[in-house]
Amino acid sequence: KVNDRGDHIEFVAQKTSDFLKVQLNKYSREILDRYKDIPFPDGKALPVMSNQKMNDYLKELGQIAKFNAPETIVYFKGNERIEETMPKHALLTTHCARKTFVTNLIYLGVSDHVIKQWTGHKDNKSCEVYHKMVDEIKSREMAKCDTI
User: Of 49, 72, 106, 141, which sees the most CB atoms within 10 A?
Assistant: First the structure.
C-alpha cells in the first residue's frame, strides 16, 4: 500500500531490482480501491498467492470461459522436436497475461518507450516478439477486406 501514489504505483521489480513507476487506469484504480480497507500481511495492497496457484486459477477460469480451441505448442528437448496439442485454457499463465497486455498496448499505439518503462524490459529486442504478434493481427484484420 505504501507504493500507491494515487495516479500511479512505484516499486522495485523483484527480477531486475529496477525502480518502476506504473500509471494507473480507471480499472486498476478501481481494483486497488476495492481492497483499500482490507488489511493484508506485510502492508500489501492486494491478496498475494503463489504464481503456481495463480496459474491454476487462470486455467480454471479459462475452462469456465470455454477457451477450448485446440492450440499446438512446439518445443525442443535436446535435438528432439516435440509438438503438443491441448485446449487453450490449459496454456493460460500470468506470463500469457503479461504478453497479452503488452500486445494490446502496441495494438493501441502505446510507444515502446512507455511499454518498456512499465514492464521493465531493457531493450528493443525483447519487444520485437510482441510487434510480430501485432503484425499477425493486422494481417488477419486486413484479410477481412478480401470478402467485400
Answer: 106
